[in-house]
Design the sequence.
């Protein structure tokens, strides 16, 4: 089993969907990635920052699940990053209502010494210079580095983003962002251009339409499980990334064939995340439920055509 | 092997895409369905109508491929149905420029006597009363009836459409049309409502995002092959339906498991259709090419997770 370093926000979210709204609840990319990866019982560490207002019980939710938080800095007189958003009726788009960076503004990530030789590094959505800073602290070249990002950084820090993209192995990005980053409409062509920027593997997340994995001319397509109701999409992309990274850390096999399985695990875990507000569903998730849903994914996608 | 009856338009199309434009070329739902189904060497018959202006060589393209045209009426002093459309840059939407119904306005379909006991009936896009008229001519209850339709008929002939929908086994319909017909946004809920209208099987076509097959609580998802370029989407939905129906006619097995294969064959054939203007690619398509692409579909979708 490999050690896994997880970088990303640990945050307060306030979410509004057609089904209801929440006060400030637990959120953040590193939170969702950590909860998702914890399904594989890997030895992981979160690198992040929170303020003095962040409840100890939220941190305990991570440590309870074997996510080391020595790299989560607590700025006693600072306030935790806060994001608030409202989803439209179709759940495919949202408006950001509030973004308070707070302690993130001056965040210098520190990877705990015990994790600087981790084999897998998952760089969750954060400023590309923070992502880069984490990479530079690794004392041994990781077996696999995975980066997730979003259009926000393309808009305000494209050069920094391109620099970190040139150094990583796998990028996970959504379809519109892949188009923006590459200037190509076709996702096949977009993946090709993004390959040329550095990553050997490109994962394009298409929300309710699933996810595509590209590696040179090889492609793999994992559908999203069709659901009667999507309750709250917040964190689904991070949960996908956490399942992807967690499965690879557990299996230790980073072949393309095994990455297909990692994409399926990512999609499976994301399908749970959207069933309730915030992290609620991920916190109650049992291994047997994951197994049952993987079986559903098999029935959903596997067919039996003999080619003679 | 089962006999297959194909109902639909045989038409002239004029198409404009970002890649170029055509004069009047061969088109029509029955044409695309017939060409696609002919890949399975099934005994099929088209039921349609053309005008005196329709070239014999176009009809020969069908008979050359074992599609019987005794049921294609030729109205000597009439003009063939003509459709013209222009695709937007993203290829996912189009404007209809011209629709001249011509001989379709007074069309009374006649199923050739030799095909009135066909096991599979594929009702391609046409007025629901024409589709119903064909069903009523069958002397033996078909093993499987498949209906394709579009929003146009929902808008002007909903009651007739619901009547024919209540009598068929499989409906193929695109995602937006499924939402319109059911009043449900979630495709899972839309399929449920459409089941209640009659069809035991609901196929929802999502264009570049693939197709979903529903049967009670069972689901199957076939992706569309991600393509660097979609040259002309015209006929892709009909080609999908023709592959679906043709494969089932050839195999004679209408179990849900075998319908999964039929959906994959439909997707595979549709992925060729969009590579060139109109029917051009389907007319040059070789069995070896289909086999190679099926192998691509396998690599695209199949994974190997052991559930213990």
Sequence:
């Amino acid at each position: 089993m490999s050690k896994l370093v997880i970088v990303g926000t640990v945050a307060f979210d306030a979410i509004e969907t057609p089904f209801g709204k929440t006060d400030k609840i637990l959120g953040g990319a590193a939170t969702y990635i950590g909860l998702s990866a914890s399904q594989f019982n890997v030895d992981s560490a979160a690198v992040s920052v929170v303020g003095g207002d962040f409840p100890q019980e939220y941190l305990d939710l991570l440590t309870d699940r074997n996510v080391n938080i020595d790299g989560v800095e607590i700025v006693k007189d600072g306030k935790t990053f806060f994001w608030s958003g409202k989803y439209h009726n179709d759940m495919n788009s949202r408006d950001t209502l509030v973004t308070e960076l707070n302690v993130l503004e001056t965040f210098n990530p520190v990877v705990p010494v015990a994790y600087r030789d981790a084999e897998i590094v998952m760089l969750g959505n954060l400023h590309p210079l923070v992502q880069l800073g984490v990479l530079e602290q690794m004392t041994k070249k990781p077996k696999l580095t995975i980066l997730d990002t979003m259009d926000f950084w393309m808009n305000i820090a494209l050069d920094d983003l391109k620099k970190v993209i040139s150094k990583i192995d796998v990028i996970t990005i959504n379809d519109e962002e892949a188009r923006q980053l590459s200037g190509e409409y076709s996702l096949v062509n977009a993946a090709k251009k993004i390959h040329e920027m550095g990553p050997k593997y490109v994962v394009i997340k298409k929300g309710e339409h699933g996810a595509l994995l590209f590696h040179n001319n090889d492609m793999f397509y994992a559908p999203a499980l069709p659901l009667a109701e999507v309750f709250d999409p917040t964190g689904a992309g991070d949960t996908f990334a956490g399942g992807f990274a967690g499965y690879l850390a557990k299996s230790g096999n980073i072949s393309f064939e095994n990455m297909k399985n990692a994409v399926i695990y990512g999609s499976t875990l994301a399908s749970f995340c959207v069933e309730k507000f915030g992290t609620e569903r991920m916190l109650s998730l049992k291994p047997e439920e994951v197994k049952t849903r993987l079986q559903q994914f098999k029935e959903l996608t596997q067919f039996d055509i003999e080619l003679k």
